[in-house]
């Protein structure tokens, strides 16, 4: 501070000037060092985070087990239904054989007598093989929608029926289809309870002629 006479009131000596210069220099160095340390710390932190992420990514991950496919229940039901129908058809044939067709032990034909509760005529025999109520409906009754449904001759399967329901009780007849007799399907093997004889198993061609009164039917329980 200059006074009246233009001289410094508090002149700085050489020692004071040197001290101030030293303090200023030390402050600059300290500030630079702090900035350097801070910079190194941030850099180290970033590098560590990257290394950690890379290490985690390299770890083997537990793979999710694939879900097991659920079986198609509808397919099983369809197969069971088909198998059940095949068994029912085989049972029809098995029952037909219990009347000993074509042997001396066959059940003799009769419209008035019965065998094990079923009439010993053709419709009574068929009723027995299908497990219908005793003594069984007659041939016309078997064509009812309660018991059967119409099918074509080409659709015949084991246990199906071929019937002539027209005429009188002396002309109507029904047989049980088992299998085709040849590849040309010109005849088939059938079980029947025929007049003046009884239970038989023989080759038939009923219903195969275009004008035949015999028609194919499928029992409702098959």
Automatic annotation (TrEMBL):
GO biological process, one term: proteolysis
GO molecular function, one term: cysteine-type peptidase activity
Domain (NlpC/P60): residue spans on this chain: 119-177
Region (Disordered): 36-89
Record field: compositional bias (Basic and acidic residues): 66-78
Keywords carried by this UniProt record: Hydrolase, Protease, Signal, Thiol protease
Family matches, as InterPro entries: NLP_P60_dom, Papain-like_cys_pep_sf
A Pfam family of this chain: NLPC_P60
Skewed-composition ranges (Low complexity): 36-58
Gene3D superfamilies in alphabetical order: endopeptidase domain like (from Nostoc punctiforme)
Residues of the signal peptide: 1-35
Family designation: Belongs to the peptidase C40 family.
Name of the protein this chain belongs to: NlpC/P60 family protein
Natural source organism: Actinomadura soli
């Amino acid at each position: 501070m200059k006074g009246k006479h233009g001289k410094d009131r508090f002149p700085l000596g050489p020692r004071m000037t040197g001290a101030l210069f030293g303090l200023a220099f030390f402050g600059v160095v300290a500030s630079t060092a702090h900035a350097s340390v801070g910079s190194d710390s941030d850099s180290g932190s970033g590098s560590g985070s990257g290394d950690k992420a890379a290490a985690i990514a390299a770890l083997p991950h537990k793979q999710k087990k694939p879900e097991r496919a659920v079986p198609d229940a509808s397919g099983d039901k369809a197969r069971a239904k088909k198998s059940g129908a095949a068994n029912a058809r085989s049972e029809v044939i098995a029952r037909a054989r219990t009347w000993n067709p074509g042997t001396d032990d066959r059940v003799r034909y009769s419209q008035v007598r019965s065998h094990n509760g079923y009439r010993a005529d053709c419709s009574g025999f068929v009723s027995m093989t299908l497990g219908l109520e005793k003594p069984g409906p007659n041939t016309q009754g078997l064509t009812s929608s309660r018991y059967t449904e119409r099918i074509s001759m080409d659709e015949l399967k084991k246990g199906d029926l071929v019937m002539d329901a027209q005429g009188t009780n002396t002309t109507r007849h029904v047989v049980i289809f088992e299998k085709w007799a040849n590849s040309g399907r010109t005849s088939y093997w059938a079980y029947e309870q025929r007049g003046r004889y009884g239970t038989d198993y023989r080759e038939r061609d009923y219903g195969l002629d275009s004008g035949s009164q015999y028609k194919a039917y499928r029992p409702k329980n098959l």
